[in-house]
Amino acid sequence: PPPRPPLSSTRSFGRRSTGSGGGEGILRGLGGARALLRALGRAGRGMAGAGGDQGHPAVVFVLGGPGSGKGTQCARLVESLGFCHLSAGDLLRAHMKSGSPDGQMVADMIKQGQIVPSEVTVNLLKGAMAADGGARFLIDGFPRNVENREAFETVMGFDCSGVLFFDCPEAVMERRLLARNEGRTDDNIETIKRRFKVFVEQSMPVVQHYQQCGKVIWADSDRSPEEIFADIAPQVEKLVPAA
Ligand code: UP5
Ligand code: MG
Predict the structure, then answer these.
(1) H-helix or E-strand containing 85?
(2) Which of 13, 55, 172, 182 has the most Cβ atoms closer than 10 angstroms to its Cβ?
(3) What is the 8-class DSSP label of residue 29?
(4) Average pLDDT over residues 154-171
(5) Containing H/E element for 173?
(6) Taking the alpha carbons of 73, 79, 85, 91 in that order, is the dihedral positive or negative?
(7) pLDDT tens profile 176-208
(8) Rounded distance, CA 200 to CA 55, Å?
C-alpha cells in the first residue's frame, strides 16, 4: 500500500495560524441541541436492516479541504462500486432553497463558510439515507467538526466504517474553486479563505480522531482525477465490499 504520512505533516494544513474559529459561538450555543440529538438518537436506533452485516448500512465519510475533489471522486466511486453518494453540502444547499424556516440561516452560514448546526445536517443525512435505503453510503463533506461526528453517532446509533481523506495544498484547492464557476455563494476568495481556516481548525481534528482509530484511507489529491481514482477505488472496495 502507498505510504501514509502522519497527518501532522500534511502539506496543506500544518502551517496555518490559529485564532478564534468561525463557528465556535454557534457550537457553544448547542447545549439544547445536544439533548434533542440524544432523544433523536434513541429513536434513530430503530433504523436497521438496510444492508450491512451489523444491521445498519455501511458508511464511509469522505473528508478533505474545500476543492480537494470529494465530489469528483465520489461520482466515480458511485459509478464503479455502486455506493450511494450523499453530499452534506448539496443537501444543505437544497434545504436552503426548499423554503424551510431555517433555510435563510443555512444560506447565511454557507455564505460565511461556517458550519451549520449538527441537528440540521444530521437530520438531512438521516432522511436521505432512509429514503435511499441502500447498504453502502459515501457521506461527503461531513462530519466537519467533533460535535458533528458525535451527533451522527448518537442519532444513527453507529459510527462510520472508515474515512477517505483527500490531502491537497491550499494553493491548488484555491485555484480549482476560483475556476469552478457553478454560481456557489461560497466560491469567492474571501469565503474560500474562511473555509480553509474552519477546515484546519475544526475539521482536521475529526480526521485526526479517525487516524488514531486506524480508519483513514489517505490520498494525495494533487494528482489527476484518474490517478487518484485508481489509487483509492481498490482501498474503498476492500473497506466496504459489495454484498
Ligand atoms: N477538480 C476536482 N478534482 C480535480 C483534480 N484531481 N484535478 C483538477 N481539478 C479537479 O472539485 C472542485 C473543483 O476542482 C471542480 O471544479 C472539479 O472539477 C475540480 P470538487 O470535486 O467539487 O471538490 P469538493 O472537495 O467536493 O469541493 P467543495 O467545494 O464541494 O468542498 P466543500 O467542503 O467546501 O463544500 P461542501 O459542499 O461540502 O460544503 C459547503 C459548505 O456547506 C461548508 O463550507 C459549510 O458552510 C456547509 N456545510 C456544513 O455546514 N455542514 C456540513 O456537514 C457540510 C457542509
Ligand atoms: Mg463537494
Answers:
(1) strand 84-87
(2) 13
(3) T
(4) 98
(5) helix 170-180
(6) positive
(7) 999 999 999 999 999 999 999 999 999 999 999
(8) 34
**Residue with grid cell 466496504, as numbered in its chain:** 240
What was the pLDDT predicted at 33? 36
The candidate with the shortest Cα–Cα distance to 22, out of 121, 108, 140, 104, is 108
Q: Which three cell numbers stand for residue 54?
A: 451489523
Cis peptide before 143 (omega within 30 of 0): yes
Q: Determine the pLDDT at residue 52.
A: 53
| Residue 71 in contact with ligand 1 by CB distance below 6 A | yes
Cell numbers for 165, please give them.
481523506
Residue 156: pLDDT over 60: yes
Give the closest residue (by CA) to ligand 1 atom 10.
Answer: 69
Neighbours of ion ligand 2 (CB under 5 A): 70-71
**Pocket perturbation via mutation, ligand 1, pick of 30, 59, 62, 70 by most ligand atoms within 8 A of CB:** 70
* Span 47-97, pLDDT tens digits: 333 345 679 999 999 999 999 999 999 999 999 999 999 999 999 999 999
Contact (Cβ atoms closer than 8 angstroms) between residue 180 and residue 69: no
